[in-house]
Specification:
There is one protein chain. The chain has 425 residues and is of the alpha+beta class. It folds into two domains: 240 residues, 2-Layer Sandwich (BirA Bifunctional Protein, domain 2), CATH 3.30.930.10; 91 residues, 3-Layer(aba) Sandwich (Rossmann fold), CATH 3.40.50.800. Helices cover 38% and strands 22% of the residues. The protein is built from 16 helices and 16 strands. An eight-stranded mixed beta sheet has the order 1-5-6-11-10-9-7-8, sandwiched between helices. A five-stranded mixed beta sheet has the order 13-12-14-15-16, sandwiched between helices. The longest helix is centred in the first third of the chain and has 18 residues. The relative contact order is 0.12. The mean pLDDT is 93. Bound molecules: histidyl-adenosine monophosphate (HAM). Histidyl-adenosine monophosphate binds next to strand 6, strand 10, strand 11 and helix 12.
Length: 425
């Protein structure tokens, strides 16, 4: 016997269903990004939702995303797998596997999985659009990648954001800086406690972007990485700034910007918005990872990219009343005034195949109910097919806003409607 009130399943904690008409905004933000990426010479890349766990472990042993938040599982062949927590490692894995001719410029739209404590703007499954450019260490590439993202936010009509820029230097200068930083932080730890000391020992860089109030004084007095860059890193960083200046892209230098993955070298950046909660105010971010391809077993290949969280982008859009929900409208709604038969079915089919957006009602509803449905669907025209129209080989077309009516020969209906089409989506 089935239970009387069956359990209603809900989407897992930290995940969301996205339904129409909200999905129309998704189509909008993704297609604006796709067109923009194409203008910058990027092709779409699609990689699996899961990878061998080592793909991520190799790149982020000391990052929370990899150590604590990864969705890991053994498949039926007892291979250790992980749902991808981020998009860069899989793209670099694909580069190393397929060896496309560099520069290799790709963009992606991907769901990502992190077992985080869910809150507004932080989910266990989120979506990113992003780009990765492999095979060129020219600072112009950094500038173009940042300009692509800056222009994207503008194109969506967003204004409440700012760009933070930093350099993580090359691995050698970073290593000696990390030691210096560790010494400084431990030397000034005073009564800051074991948690502080533990974190400093683990990864002193992550302390820099900590929001813990008690730690701020020590952090503010800490030596800064940008003052300890090697000659090449410094020249690269300055060239990136000159390039951004040349394009009129505003930025703030933020020596405390430490991004959450081990693979970053050289340029790093983040677009932050005050429309988001302070704890996770980044709409998007990225940077260079010049050692990653080599670490994944490929030839030494520099790379740079970014990811933008679609959910956060839409939170910012809501706050700025940008990217409005435009419920999909119809060109026409077919109203079936005939008792039975296949006329409404075939007319609707013909109009749709002629490229129009057309819908109809089902299940022998009254003509009155069908006109109501046409209004509700926000169709521009109602197309009536009744006994009178059928006898004359016509359809009755009604403009649903003005109420104006006109008879159109049935075989010209598609052309007539197409000539009056108001939107192309
Ligand atoms: P990320 O900073 O971890 O970088 O993520 C990029 C963006 O994804 C964030 O700025 C945020 O908008 C969004 N995001 C991240 N985690 C969540 C979450 N739990 N819930 C909602 N949104 C989230 C990366 O993932 C790098 N792979 C970016 C990159 C590409 N670096 C170089 N190339």
């Amino acid at each position: 016997m089935p239970p009387e009130s069956p359990e209603v399943f809900r989407a897992p904690t930290g995940t969301h269903d996205i339904l129409p008409p909200d999905t129309d905004r998704w189509i909008e933000v993704v297609s604006v990004f796709a067109r923009r990426a194409a203008r910058y010479g990027y092709g779409l890349v699609v990689t699996p939702v899961f990878e061998h766990r080592e793909v991520f472990q190799r790149v982020g042993e000391s990052t929370d995303v990899v150590r604590k938040e990864m969705y890991e599982f053994l498949d039926k062949g007892r291979r250790a797998m992980a749902l991808r927590p981020e998009g860069t490692a899989p793209v670099v894995r694909a580069f190393v596997q397929h060896r496309p001719t560099p520069p290799w410029k790709v963009w992606y739209l991907a769901p990502l999985f992190r077992y985080e404590r869910p809150q507004k703007g932080r989910y266990r499954q989120h979506w990113q659009v992003g780009v990765e450019a492999l095979g060129a260490d020219d600072p112009d590439v950094d500038v173009e990648v940042i300009a692509l993202l800056e222009g994207y936010l503008r194109e969506l009509g967003l204004e409440r954001w700012s760009l933070r820029l930093n350099s993580m230097g090359d691995p050698t200068s970073r290593r000696s800086y990390v030691e210096l930083l560790r010494e400084h932080l431990l030397g000034h730890a005073g009564d800051l406690g074991d948690d502080f000391r533990e974190r400093v020992r683990e990864n002193p860089l992550r302390i820099l972007d900590s929001k813990n109030e008690e730690w701020q004084e020590v952090i503010e007095r800490a030596p800064q990485l940008t003052e300890h860059l090697g000659t090449e890193s410094r020249a690269h960083f300055e060239a990136v700034q000159r390039g951004l200046d040349a394009l009129g892209v505003d930025y703030e230098l933020d020596p405390r910007l430490v991004r959450g993955f081990d693979y970053y070298t050289s340029t790093t950046f983040e677009f932050v918005s005050d429309a988001l909660d302070a704890a996770q105010n980044a709409v998007g971010g990225g940077g260079r990872y010049d050692q990653l391809a080599e670490q994944m077993g490929g030839p030494p290949t520099p790379g740079i990219g970014f990811g933008v969280g679609i959910e956060r982008l839409l939170i910012v859009a809501d706050a700025e009343q940008a990217v409005p929900v435009r419920e999909s409208k119809l060109d026409a709604f077919v109203v079936d005034g005939l008792d039975g038969g296949r006329e409404a079915l075939t007319l609707t089919h013909e109009l749709r195949e002629a490229g129009l957006r057309v819908d109809r009602a089902y299940g022998n509803r009254s003509v009155k109910a069908q006109w109501k449905a046409a209004d509700r669907a926000r169709a521009v025209f109602g197309v009536m097919l009744g006994e009178r129209e059928l006898a004359r080989g016509e359809v009755g077309v009604k403009d649903l806003r003005s109420g104006e009516q006109v008879d159109v020969p049935r075989d010209q209906a598609a052309g007539w409607l197409r000539a009056r089409r108001e939107f192309d989506r």
